[in-house]
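Q: Predict the bound structure with cobalamin.
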Amino acid sequence: MIEIRRRAAALGFSATGIARLDRNPHAAQIDRWLADGHAGTMTYLHRQAEKRKDPRLIMPEARSAVVTLTNYYHRADLTPRSDVKARVAQYAWSSDYHDVLGARLEQLAAAIRETVPGSITRCYVDAGPVPERELAQLAGLGWIGKNMMLIHPEIGSFTFIGVVLTSAELDADLPFEADRCGTCRRCLDACPTRAFAGPRDLDARS
Ligand code: B12
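A: Predicted complex:
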């Protein structure tokens, strides 16, 4: 839907794609990850599992997901310095993204309702039971790297994902099928807490 993409770009989203809502094709990965205890103390992830495995359960009227990326890369000098004891991740350098993107997503949701009269919408950024990376890959926005990050081919992985679920039947984008990580494993080896049990398998207890 060209109009929805145009409105999303005007609102400042870095990229936008559309996915049809279906059962999560990687539902088994969620079960395995939880069974291995890799969610640690995040017990809410166990409670939300059924909805992550089938996002249609979140909002029964929903047919499509409009998925947005927002670039938060700050182009800073990231060379490790011996005089610095602790570093703050770049995603936390700006105002709380839940507030900033939540408000922007509400504006996009209004544009969707305007474009498809009678449709209903619900916005999510990080806090809900939505499989956000999965939906972003299905919406053609990038591939899921070995560090589990959604990687956009041009913007990279320093992005927040925001999702509007809607009852509107929108034309979906093609999923991003390629896995561009190949044999590279630099992210796995660089992880300072050795948190990866393997590719696409982060143990949050590490
Ligand atoms: C719980 C959580 C965490 C936990 C656990 C992280 C994890 N790897 O699961 C902790 C606290 C550690 C964490 C850390 C971070 N998080 Co976090 N987190 C979440 C949250 C709330 C749920 C993720 C979840 O369900 N994990 C369980 C796993 C099993 O599911 P999954 O990550 O979606 O992975 C799916 C794919 O890997 C897929 N899959 C598996 N194999 C394959 C193979 C192929 C070929 C394909 C296509 C798919 C596929 O199956 C999985 C299930 O669907 C999401 C928001 C959301 N609602 O989804 C944000 C989210 C994933 N986090 C985000 C961010 C920014 C971060 C950090 C970078 C923050 C920071 N700097 O510290 C780190 C990155 C850590 C990492 N490498 O994953 C962003 C990621 C954006 C992006 N570009 O990917 C999200 C989407 C929030 C947002 N709205 O922007 N996070």
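A: The chain is about 30% helix and 15% strand.
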